[in-house]
Amino acid sequence: MSEERKVGENFDEKTAGDIFDKLKNVEGKIKPKKGDSKLKKIADLMNEAKYLEGKGKLSEAADIYKQVIFTLPDSQKAYDALAKIYQKQGDVASEKDILMKAIGSCRDNAEFKKRLNEIN
């Protein structure tokens, strides 16, 4: 019962090629496409958060920075921006909390330690 598969019946050539590329990516034999980059999505989120922050929508920006931190737990820029939002809002407890998390998650954390000491 061998059926001959023809292009277009199950997949078109582009879809078949995309599936093949993804399978090769799993084995680590080719680089992922630029559009599929996790870091590009994080950069887009950071840009969106900065835009919202500029518009004065601090709570919405903070939520996006939290998403970035969840996805990339050592993102110094996201921790820094989130701490600054808490500082602008006058939320000292949240600012201390995020600085302590930053100290635990980021390798280069001297600046976070300094800021936390200044609050205490």
Order of helices and strands: HHHHHH
Low-confidence stretches: none
Task: Tell me the span between the first and last alpha carbons.
Answer: 76 Å
Mean pLDDT: 81
Helix-strand category:
mainly alpha
Instruction: Return Rg in Å.
Output: 22 Å
Strand content: under 5%
Shape designation: flat
Task: Please describe the structure with a list of short key phrases separated by commas or semicolons.
120 residues; 69% helix; mainly alpha
Summary?
The chain has 120 residues and is mainly α. The chain has helices at 13-26, 38-54, 58-71, 76-89, 92-105, 110-119. Helix 3 (58-71) packs antiparallel against helix 4 and helix 4 packs antiparallel against helix 5.
Task: Please give a structural write-up.
It is a single chain. The chain is mostly helical and 120 residues long. It contains six helices and no strands. Helix 4 packs antiparallel against helix 5 and helix 5 packs antiparallel against helix 6. The mean pLDDT is 81.
